[in-house]
C-alpha cells in the first residue's frame, strides 16, 4: 500500500476543490444540453427598427409626407410603439413586424432621387449603421441596413417618391401582451 505525503494530500485537496468550484460556477449540464440564446425584447427590437425608419424618413425633410398602414395614416415620426404595427404570425407563438412608410407623388425627377439616397446613407452611417446598395433600375435606387437583431431596413428613392420598409425576424415577444409595448420618440436625421 502506497502512502502519500501530507503535502501531496493537501495539493490533491486543493485540486479537487478547484474542480468542484469550476463545476459549480459553470454548471454541470450534460454534453448534449444546448444553451438557448436569449431573445432580445420586443421593445428593444422595435426601438432599433423605428429609429432607423424615422431617420430615413426625415433625412430629406419629408417626414410629414410619409404615410403608413397601407397609405391610410400619417407615419408617426414623433413617437410610436410596436403595438402600432401589425404583427404577422411566423411560427408557433411567434410574430414579426413589417413596417412600410411611403411618400409618393413627390415627383423627384431622375436627378433628385440620387441626392435623396445620399442623404439617407449619410444619416444612417452617422449613427454607426453599415449601409449597402440593394438595387437599381431606371428611375429607382435602393439601399439597406441590417440591424443588430436581424431586422432589415430598405430605403427606396425614385422618380415618384420615397419609401422605407423594415422587416424583423420572428420573435416570441411580438405575440405577447401589447400593453407591455413602450412608446419611443422618433429620431430625426
TrEMBL record:
It comes from the Bacteria. This is DUF4853 domain-containing protein. It comes from Rothia amarae.
